[in-house]
Amino acid sequence: MTDDAIVRVRGLTTVLNGKTIFDSLDLDIPRGKVTAIMGPSGTGKTTLLKHITGQMRGDAGSVELDGLNVPELSREKLFELRERIGYLFQNSALLTDFDVFENVAFPLRQHTKLPEELIRNIVLNKLQAVGLRGAARLMPTELSGGMARRVALARAIVFDPALILYDEPFVGLDPIALNQVLLLIRTLNETLGITSVLVAHELAAVQKVADHVYLIANGKVVAQGDPATLANDGSPWTAQFFGGEADGPVPFQYPAGDYASALGFPGGKA
Amino acid sequence: MSSRNDNVVVRSLAQIGACGLFLLTILAAIPRSFRHGRETVRQIWFVGAMSLTIVMTCGLFVGMVLGLQLYDVLSIFGGTSATGTVVAIAIYRELGPVVTALLFAGRAGTSVTAEIGLMRATDQLDAMEMMAVDPIAYVAAPRFLAGVVALPLLGLVFCAMGVFGGHLVGVTWLGIDNGTFWSNMTATVDIHKDIVNGVLLKSFAFGIVVSLIAVFQGYTTPPTSEGVAYATTRTVVASSIAILALDFVLTSFLI
Amino acid sequence: MTQRRSYAVGTGLFIVLGFAALAYLATQTTSVANTSRGDTYTIDTRFANVGQLKVRAPVKVAGVRVGSVQAIDLVPGKEEAKVTLAIDESHKDIPEDSVATIYTSGLLGDQYVGIQFGQSKTPVKEGGEIGLTRPAQQLEEMLGKFFGGGSAPDRLGGTFHVTGSFTNIGGLQPGAAVKMAGVPIGSVESVVVKPGAVEATVTLAIDKRYSQIPDDSSAAVFTSGLIGSQYVAIQPGGSPEYLADGDSFVLTQSALQLEDLIGKFLVNGSPSENKPGAQGAATDNAGKK
Ligand SMILES: Nc1ncnc2c1ncn2[C@@H]1O[C@H](COP(=O)(O)OP(=O)(O)OP(=O)(O)O)[C@@H](O)[C@H]1O
Ligand SMILES: [Mg+2]
Predict the structure, then answer these.
(1) Which positions in chain C touch B195 (Cβ < 8 Å)?
(2) Which residues are CB-contacts of C218 (< 8 A; sequence separation ≥ 6)?
(3) Which ligand has the nearest atom to the CA of A89?
(4) Which residues in chain A have their CB less than 8 angstroms from residue B134's CB?
């Protein structure tokens, strides 16, 4: 692909507990665009994000971020790199010791010596963007799932990083909040030129926000392209995935033995 | 690390080895953790100041019980005037550091383990990594340091309460002469042998061991509720054994 | 942040409380002066009896600690103990005609060396000697010789044997110490009652280094400390002849019934300085100079 790919994955192969998650995966994330990664549950979308940020290492292949080969970076270099990356955890992962305000302020406090006044302004600004400025003094346990997601989102963007990785940002959001979050991702991208990678299952939302979509299954990119047209490109993968069929090339079942013999019936295939 | 079908000895050895390596990791992270000085202060509050009530109460009762027992035994020899001396020495050299460390393991060690274990289970440690904050320097090292600082202080408070308890029983209730009680004590108790080598050195050593075990167990907890439950139990069991075994070793060197 | 500051204040209070406890323990329950360390010089003294004095015991002037006992030896060929005192450099002005006395602090307490200044303008030199001493016998004599203590010495130079007959040996056990002038010189080898005899025969194994014991010396069974074990004390006589291997003591003194005597003394345990005072050797030396 082009030179302005911020992330370049080549030949990534990862085996976890004997299960092949990635099988020589190639993928590029274009700089300054919003890229969506879709795929059935358990294909390794979260795992892919973890490879990009260096939380996990593959068994073979390379993951380049801004020209640096992530798996080979030292801990210090990796931390330096991460200061420029925002990451939204699939399960929010708010720090339960701190209230909402302090959670969002946490990266600022850790990496900058900004005056309290400025920190306050930035944090309230981000909380306002996700509609939770009034919840600044609540503790994480006092939040609903959707509120926690939005706080985690505010925390991920508090630094206005160069790259933001969202792991399922739309889960648990009501239609109003969903729209606001979509708008936020789009605005960040358009006004600040922030590259966004989002893992999501909601095709409608993805179509609104993403410039490019990858469909991952069986450890490979099985389809990619414009979100508006991808669903109807005629390939069996997209047809099944977006059509929601149980049968097709994408396995619905986690790899398992023959069902009949597992239930104890004789004469199963195995 | 150890696999499930290793026997107990191999598993324990693997745990001790991993624990030792973890100590090195923490020590290496301590210079970086100074950036998080506030967090250390906060942890001293949680593990130290919050343990004061239990430590003070127990210290008082231990001193009172010792006072009663010693008065009873020493009166056989007509030596009740030595009650204060023996209470002080027994508390400074053994009961103070050991009982405080055991209480500390139960009160603060378990909560540190459970807290870090839950942070692990809810991805908070990973989240910190992603925010380029080293969880060893931000979570493990401050709690470790806080324990190492807090335990000697708690030990001193325990001892002071113990002597007070001994005085309460011996002088106020049983009528040993106040001047005799103190003068015999001050004549015999040695600041170097009993306080520095007794309370301070032992508490410091126990502080290192208990904090290390608590932080290690939390950090290596399997991310499940069952895992956290087991880890807290292991903290208490391992700390208790380590405290008493180490006490024997230290005593045999110091005496 | 108020929340943060409150932690800091609370933690500060906690730390201050801990150090307050340390200060309290150090100043109220110990004698801080017990541990002055630093450069010292030595002075030799000789005592007829060092009693229970131990190495590292304090040396005090007017009740203030100025040093410690560095070594206790028996003067070769004499029935005298040589005690080497290590005095802090800061106390260089001890007159050479001072008197060194062994006191007991408290009834159960340890013994220490007290120095009372003389009139001389010349101080004792480093490595010099204080000639005037008073031994540690007062309390023992008074209480019926109950105090002493210490263990049997290593028999490096070989031993020779002497025996003594006692009408009552109390709780004396083989292995118990044999002392002269308070210094252990041997141990009890056996305690037997010969068939037909009414007295117990005690065999003492005495270090060859201490072979010059006058043959008219007496042996007595003493108790070391109030609840301590018993030992044999040898009180030298004046004869020019010495005891040889296989000889026996002419004079023996059997064990006293400690319990009868001691009860009267201990009913109201008394503070430190009373004992030497009661004996008349010194009075309240803490307030003197
Ligand atoms: N630490 C791990 N050890 C072993 N296997 C793992 C580990 N983490 C994930 N896996 C496996 O990797 C596969 C991919 O997991 P991942 O969390 O990336 O899925 P996902 O695509 O994000 O799914 P979802 O859409 O449900 O979030 C799963 O089959 C899972 O069983
Ligand atoms: Mg996932």
Answers:
(1) 22, 25-26, 30
(2) C234, C235, C237, C249, C250, C251, C252, C253
(3) 2
(4) 75, 79
For residue A192, give every residue at least 6 positions away whose Cβ sits within 8 Å of its Cβ, in sequence order, or none.
A160
Ligand 1 proximal residues by C-beta, below 6 Å: A 16-17, 21, 39, 41-47, 90
Q: Does B165 touch chain C (CB under 8 A)?
A: no
Closest residue in chain B to residue A108, using alpha carbons only: B131
The closest of B134, B137, B101 to B213, measured between CA atoms, is: B101
Domains and CATH numbers, chain A: 1-84+211-251 (3.40.50.300)
A19: number of Cβ within 10 Å: 12
What tokens appear for C191 in the block?
A: 């305690």
CA–CA dist A185, A200 (Å, integer): 13
Residues near B13 by beta carbon (within 8 Å), at least 6 away in sequence: none
| Closest C-alpha to C73, from C47, C99, C110, C98 | C47
Residue C14 covered by a domain: no
Find the A169 Cα to ligand 2 centroid distance in Å. Answer: 11
pLDDT in tens, C107-142: 555 678 888 888 888 888 888 888 787 776 545 455
How many domains is chain C built from? Answer: 2
What is the whole-number distance in angstroms between the Cα of residue A37 and the centre of ligand 2? 11
pLDDT of residue C34: 47
| Contact (Cβ atoms closer than 8 angstroms) between residue A45 and residue A39 | yes
Determine the pLDDT at residue B233. Answer: 94
User: In this structure, which residue's CA is closest to atom 7 in ligand 1?
Assistant: A16
Segments in B122-224 forming alpha helices (H): 124-130, 135, 141-167, 178-188, 201-219
Supply the pLDDT for residue C154: 46
Atom of ligand 1 at shortest distance to CA of A45? 21
The confidence band for C192, taking pLDDT boundaries of 50, 70 and 90, is confident
Q: In angstroms, how far is CA A155 from the centroid of its own chain?
A: 15
- Range of the structural domain that residue C231 is part of: 159-288
Distance (Å, whole) CA B94 – CA B251: 9
Shortest Cα distance, chain B CAs vs residue A122, angstroms: 17
Q: Which two tokens stand for residue B58?
A: 């127990």
**CA–CA separation, C183 and C54 (whole Å):** 10
Q: Predicted ipTM?
A: 0.83
Per residue in A209-218, pLDDT (tens digit) is 899 999 998 8
Q: Is C12 part of any domain?
A: no
